[in-house]
Amino acid sequence: MYSSLHHTVTHTLLQKTPPPPTKVPNLDAVVIPVSGGGMLSGITIAWKALNPSIRIIAAEPCGRNNSADVYQCKQAQLLLRDLPKTETIADGLQANLGSLTWPIVRDLVDAVVTVTEEEIVNAMKLCFERLKVVVEPSGAVGLAAVLSEGFEEVAGGVQRVGVVLCGGNADLEGRGLWKAYLEDG
To answer: 4-182 maps to which CATH number?
Structure first.
């Protein structure tokens, strides 16, 4: 289950965070977008091995149909099988949590923060305007979670937070962005 993608993401976060004197990465929490749970599980295993007290927070779109399955599973402490597909612009996060990843999510993920479509778009805009990075809606969900009103409630006062921003599959042409630049007004 632990693939080179998970290693690369974890390795990148480790390089970006200076270690304290104990040589344990200097983060209090990591926020990771979630769908089927593969990326979340792999990154969680790596971080918890390095620092068992780190808070792992999954970020999930609630969608237009309010169907955040990972959130619902964590609340019920049970893998729920018959939940509808999330209707969201974050189309890379529409899979349901799997049976192989559920035990890791159940036991090692500390919290799930759900975000709205508007919060996702605002996070994408922030990435584009301030960071000069194009991030697809699915990849912006982690940042949307950190910026959301509900984050502080589940994060427990953490100070140093790593956020996984993944995916650049944003169809800016199809959304009319470039055409909008050419229009008056």
So the answer is: 3.40.50.1100
